[in-house]
Amino acid sequence: MRVDRRAGWPVAFRGSLAVAAGLTTWARLPGPRFQRLFPDIYCPAGDEPPDLHLRSLGAYRLVEGRGVLAGYSAAALLDADCAPHRDVPAEIPSPAAGSAPIPD
């Protein structure tokens, strides 16, 4: 797991688990220290918007143990980034719709 060297936080984490572990509070998660990637998935706030790699890490946390990543997201986490640009959405295959971007 990649870790933010400045703060020691995982790059993408479940807010509910961080709160349950006493590492932060629900009031602090929407503040300037963290950025919400997906429902209950956060990362340390940075100077730039999240790129595909960071969104893919967040997507992995979102489906961890219940799903997989697809397309450019899977490639990015395997260090085989081939996305045409950094704003490509993270992808999780959906049984009903095939591979679909994750809504924010």
Describe this structure in words.
The chain has 104 residues and is an alpha+beta fold. It has one domain (13-101). It contains three helices and five strands. The protein has helices spanning 15-20, 52-63, 71-77; strands spanning 13-14, 34-38, 41-44, 91-94, 98-101. The strands form two sheets. It has a three-stranded antiparallel β-sheet with strand order 1-3-2. A two-stranded antiparallel ribbon has the order 4-5. The longest helix has 12 residues, at 52-63. It starts with 12 loop residues before the first strand and ends with a strand.
Strand elements, count:
5
Question: Low-confidence segments, ≥5 residues, pLDDT <50?
Answer: 1-5
Q: Give the oligomeric state.
A: single chain
Written as H for each helix and E for each strand, in order along the chain, the element string is: EHEEHHEE
Average of pLDDT:
85
SSE-based structural type: alpha+beta
Helical content band: 10-25%
Into which percentage range does the β-strand content fall?
Answer: 15-25%
- The spatial strand order of the largest sheet comes to 1-3-2
Shape, principal axes of CA atoms: globular
| Count of the separate structural domains | 1
Give me the number of helical elements: 3
- Largest sheet: number of strands, sense, barrel closure: 3 strands, antiparallel
Give Rg in angstroms. Answer: 14 Å
Distance between the termini: 23 Å
